[in-house]
C-alpha cells in the first residue's frame, strides 16, 4: 500500500512542520552562540585559554535554555484543554497539533539529555584547560587557583561545578525512570522522579549564578591582542601594523573582565511560573468534594460510577483524573467520562475496568463483596462511600468527533468510553453539531462486554429511526474471539444482535465502503484501542487508495 | 501503594551508567589523558555492565516487555545461575566496579551513576526481588476440539424404553411413536 502525498500531508504535515521549526530554532541558536564565542572580540582571551570547549559548552547551554523553557509548556494541561475546548484556536488543523503535546514534551526532554551530555563533556574539557592553561597575564579570567590544579577539585569547590553535578544526577534519575517499560509497569517511580523537576529548576538557577566565564568590557580601550602589538611596536616605531585584532592601536589600559550576566532565568521563569500556577489551580479545583450517586457493577469487571460535583462542566471526549485517599494518597488515575453533565442531568459518570491493584481496592471499597452480605438484608442501606477527588476535565482528541461531517470511531474493549460519551450527547440532540454521519466500530473479546452500553446503543438507534435518519449511525460490533456460540439473545437488544459479526474487522473493506458513500469529504478517524488496530488504521489513512476522500487520523492515548 | 519493582528501574539505570562509563572511557583513551589506564578499565567495565544488564528480567505480575534481540543475552546471563539471579550479588558487583572510575575525570559521572544503580539494586534485593529470565513460552496449539470429546457420554441418548421400541409385529400402527429428536431418512 503506497503512500499518498495528499493524505500524508493532511495527516502528518502539521506536526512535522512544527518539528521542523523546532529543529531550525535549536540549530540557529546553537550556531549563533557558537559564532559569538568563536569570533567575538570580548571573548578573545577566554577563547584562547579554553579553545573549542568554550564555544561548544556555551552553544549547548543556549540550546538547553530553549528546551528547558519549552519542555514545560505542553504539560500545562488545563491551558491546553481551554485552548482546545473553547475553540480559541479556530483552525482544526492547529487543534490537532495539541494532540501531540506529549510527543513534543518527550522531544524537548530528549534534546535536554543529549545537549546536557554535550555541555558536560565540553565543560570537562574546559576544566582541564582552566587548570593547565592557567593564565598569568589575565589572572581575573582564571577559575583554577593555581596552574595544574586537579580538575576534579575545581568541580567540587565551585558553585557551578557542584550544582552541575547535582543537575546531571537529577537528570539521570528522571531519564532512566521515563522509559516506556517503567511507565507501564511502575508508574509511581516515573511520577515521583519526574516531580524532581522543581529541584532541577531551582538548582539550575543557582548553577548559572556562578560567574565562571567572563567577558572583556573595555574592547575599545584594550583591543584584544594588543599586548603582542605593544611588544612588536617597540621595534617598529611609527609604523602601523595590521595585527589580528590589534589594528596597530596601543593598549591604553589593562583588560577588564566581568562575568556574563545569566540569561537562563529569562527563558525559564515564564513557563515555570505558568506551570506552577496551573498545578495550583488544579489542586484548588480538585479539592472540592465529589458525591458518589450510584455505583453499578457491569459484566467483565467493569464498574460504573455516577458522581456529582459543583460547577463541573465537561465536553464529550474529555477525561478526569481520580484520586482516592482511602486507596492511596498520591496516586492519580485517568478515566474518560462516559456521561457529561447536562442541563437536565447534573451527574457525570465514568466506567472503570478493574485491572491492577488500585482499581481492585477501589472496587472493594465501592462495592463490598456480595458474598459476604446476607441475602436477607436489603441492598438499600446507607453505604459509606470512600471520599473521591476529581481533577479535570482534560481535553483529548475525541472531542473533535462532532467537528467533522463524517466520523469513523473505532473502539477496542474498554476504549469505547470516549465514544460512549459522544453517543450520550447525540441522544440529547444531534442537530446542533456539524456531524452528519457516524460510523461506530466496536471490537471486543468477550460478548458480555457489549452489555456495558447495549441500552445506550439501542436507545440511540431507535431515536434516530424515529426521526427518519437511519443512516446517521452505522453500527458494527465485532467479537474477535471466535470460539463458542455467541449471540445477544435479548429481544430488546435486537438492533445489536443483527449487527454483531464474529471475527476481526476488515479495515480495507470498511474504508472502501466509507469512501464510496462519502465522496470528496473529509472523514475523521478516531481510534481508542490496542496498538495493532491504531497502527493499521494510521497506515490506511495515509495510503492513496481512497482518492477523493481524505481520512484524518486522531488517536487517543494515555500515559 | 502496590508493589513497586525497584529492580526494573535499577536495570535501566545500570544500563545507562554502563554506556556513560563506556563513552567516558573511549574519550579518555582517544585523548590519551593522564592515567588513561583507568579509562581502558572503564571501557571494559562499561561493556561488561551493558552485557549483564541488557536482558530485562521478568515481571512478577503482568506482561514483560523484552529488549530487542535480548534472547541470546538472556541465555548467557541465565547460565551463571544464582550469581546473576541474586540482586545482592549484582549490587555488590556494581559497587565494586564503579570505584576505579572515580579516579579519572572523564569517568567520574559513570562511576556516580553506577553507584546509584547499585544502591537501588540493594533496595530491590532487600525487598526480596530476584531476576527471572524471559523465555519464549511454548504456546500449545489451540485445541480445535473441546475437552469434552475425551469423556464418553454419561447418559444414554433420549429414547423410550426397550419395551416400547421392540417391534410389535402384530400391531404395527400401535407400535409407532414420535421420535423426540427429528430424524431424516438417508436419501
TrEMBL record, chain A:
For this protein, the Enzyme Commission number is 1.6.3.1
- Reaction catalysed by this enzyme: NADPH + 2 O2 = 2 superoxide + NADP(+) + H(+); NADPH + O2 + H(+) = H2O2 + NADP(+)
What molecular function does GO assign, one term?
A: superoxide-generating NAD(P)H oxidase activity
Q: How does it sit in the membrane?
A: Multi-pass membrane protein
Enzymatic class: oxidoreductase
Q: Which SUPFAM superfamilies match?
A: Ferredoxin reductase-like, C-terminal NADP-linked domain (SSF52343), Riboflavin synthase domain-like (SSF63380)
What subcellular compartments does it reside in? Cell junction, Focal adhesion; Cell membrane; Cytoplasm; Endoplasmic reticulum membrane
UniProt record, GO biological process? superoxide metabolic process
Ranges for domain FAD-binding FR-type:
285-400
Pfam family of this protein, just one?
Answer: NAD_binding_6
Q: Which GO terms describe its cellular component?
A: endoplasmic reticulum membrane; focal adhesion; nucleus; perinuclear region of cytoplasm; plasma membrane
Q: Where are the transmembrane segments?
A: 20-39, 103-125, 153-177, 189-208
Predominant location: other
Q: Which UniProt keywords apply?
A: Cell junction, Cell membrane, Cytoplasm, Disulfide bond, Endoplasmic reticulum, Glycoprotein, Membrane, NADP, Nucleus, Oxidoreductase, Transmembrane, Transmembrane helix
Report the superkingdom from the record: Eukaryota
**Function field:** NADPH oxidase that catalyzes predominantly the reduction of oxygen to H2O2. Can also catalyze to a smaller extent, the reduction of oxygen to superoxide. May function as an oxygen sensor regulating the KCNK3/TASK-1 potassium channel and HIF1A activity. May regulate insulin signaling cascade. May play a role in apoptosis, bone resorption and lipolysaccharide-mediated activation of NFKB. May produce superoxide in the nucleus and play a role in regulating gene expression upon cell stimulation.
Protein name according to UniProt: NADPH oxidase 4
Q: Which organism is it from?
A: Umbra pygmaea
From TrEMBL, chain B:
- Span-the-membrane segments of this chain are 38-54, 91-124
Which keywords label this protein? Cell membrane, Electron transport, Heme, Iron, Membrane, Metal-binding, NADP, Oxidoreductase, Transmembrane, Transmembrane helix, Transport
Q: Which Pfam families match?
A: Cytochrom_B558a
Query: In what ranges is there compositional bias, type Basic and acidic residues?
Result: 162-171
Keyword presence, Translocase: no
Q: Name one GO molecular function term.
A: oxidoreductase activity
One Gene Ontology cellular component: NADPH oxidase complex
Q: Does the keyword Signal apply?
A: no
Region annotated Disordered sits at 141-173
Query: Where found?
Result: Cell membrane
Domain of life of the organism in this record? Eukaryota
The family note in this entry says:
Belongs to the p22phox family.
Question: What job does this protein perform?
Answer: Subunit of NADPH oxidase complexes that is required for the NADPH oxidase activity that generates, in various cell types, superoxide from molecular oxygen utilizing NADPH as an electron donor. Subunit of the phagocyte NADPH oxidase complex that mediates the transfer of electrons from cytosolic NADPH to O2 to produce the superoxide anion (O2(-)). In the activated complex, electrons are first transferred from NADPH to flavin adenine dinucleotide (FAD) and subsequently transferred via two heme molecules to molecular oxygen, producing superoxide through an outer-sphere reaction.
Q: How does it assemble?
A: Component of the phagocyte NADPH oxidase core complex/cytochrome b558 complex, composed of CYBB (heavy chain (beta)) and CYBA (light chain (alpha)). Component of the phagocyte NADPH oxidase complex composed of an obligatory core heterodimer formed by the membrane proteins CYBA and CYBB and the cytosolic regulatory subunits NCF1/p47-phox, NCF2/p67-phox, NCF4/p40-phox and the small GTPase RAC1 or RAC2. Interacts with NCF1 (via SH3 domain). Interacts with SH3PXD2A. Interacts with DUOX1, DUOX2 and TPO. Interacts with NOX4; this interaction mediates superoxide generation.
Name the record gives this protein: Cytochrome b-245 light chain
Organism name: Umbra pygmaea (Eastern mudminnow)
